[in-house]
Design brief:
The structure holds two protein chains of two kinds. Chain A is built from no helices and twelve strands. In chain A, strands 2, 5, 6, 10, 11 and 12 form a six-stranded mixed β-sheet that branches. Chain A is globular, with a radius of gyration of 13 Å. Chain B is an all-beta fold. In chain B, strands 2, 4, 5, 6, 9, 10 and 11 form a seven-stranded mixed β-sheet that branches. The radius of gyration of chain B is 13 Å and the shape is globular. The mean pLDDT of chain B is 95. The chains are: A mainly beta, B mainly beta.
């Protein structure tokens, strides 16, 4: 079965530092990939998506992600983290049979 | 305003007492889906619907039912709730499974 792995459960970074959140997927065909963010007590908001084409995609709030087929990865990056970025981040992939599969999430803490 | 509305937002109930969580979207989306979110497990898809009268199981459908009689509504039914269904539930909609999902604000269910 297809799956999505987010290896880091928690990450803590200093405000202003760069950020990279890892996501690996197992999927045979070209995947449809998403990153979502969830602030405490709220639903999920789309940050960015990859369907095809340019492997570096830009999203909202200054985030970007790079699709690397050879590594089956879709890592999320931000050059300079703000305290308001503290949240939980989910990677997701569309699976066979029209299912959407999420990773377990990475909780980002930002220290001042 | 484009939105997905879930009701109730919070519910505490007892084992075996049938309950329904409603979900309504005003974006004329064809694809709707239910997820449950549990710590360390991310979001897991319960059921999804590609269109009116078309529903299918996600990864964790046991103990749940859904219906899609109208395009805008996709209720989740727990006919005989059990404590292991205590969770945070999200409804989402999209123009299609390969498109970004719009999430509701969530429903926190506690089954005693």
């Amino acid at each position: 079965a297809q799956s999505v792995t987010q290896p880091d459960i928690h990450i803590t970074v200093s405000e202003g530092a760069s950020l990279e959140l890892r996501c690996n997927y197992s999927y045979g065909a070209t995947p449809y990939l998403f990153w979502y963010v969830q602030s405490p007590g709220q639903g999920l908001q789309l940050l960015l998506k990859y369907f095809s084409g340019d492997t570096l995609v830009q999203g909202i709030k200054g985030f970007e992600a790079e699709f690397k087929r050879s590594q089956s990865s879709f890592n999320l990056r931000k050059p300079s983290v703000h305290w308001s970025d503290a949240a939980e981040y989910f990677c997701a992939v569309v699976q066979y049979g029209n299912k959407l599969v999420f990773g377990a999430g990475t909780i980002l803490r930002v220290k001042s | 305003e484009a939105q997905v509305t879930q009701n109730p937002r919070y519910l505490i109930t007892v084992t075996g007492k049938k309950l329904t969580v409603t979900c309504s979207q005003n974006m004329n989306h064809e694809y709707m889906s239910w997820y449950r979110q549990d710590p360390g497990l991310g979001l897991r898809q319960i059921y999804y619907s590609m269109n009116v009268e078309v529903t299918d199981k996600g990864d964790v459908p046991e103990g749940y039912k859904v219906s899609r009689k109208e395009k805008r509504n996709f209720p989740l039914i727990l006919e005989s709730p059990s404590p292991n269904q205590t969770s945070l539930y999200f409804c989402a909609s999209a123009t299609g499974v390969h498109q970004p999902q719009h999430f509701g604000d969530g429903t926190r269910l506690s089954i005693l």
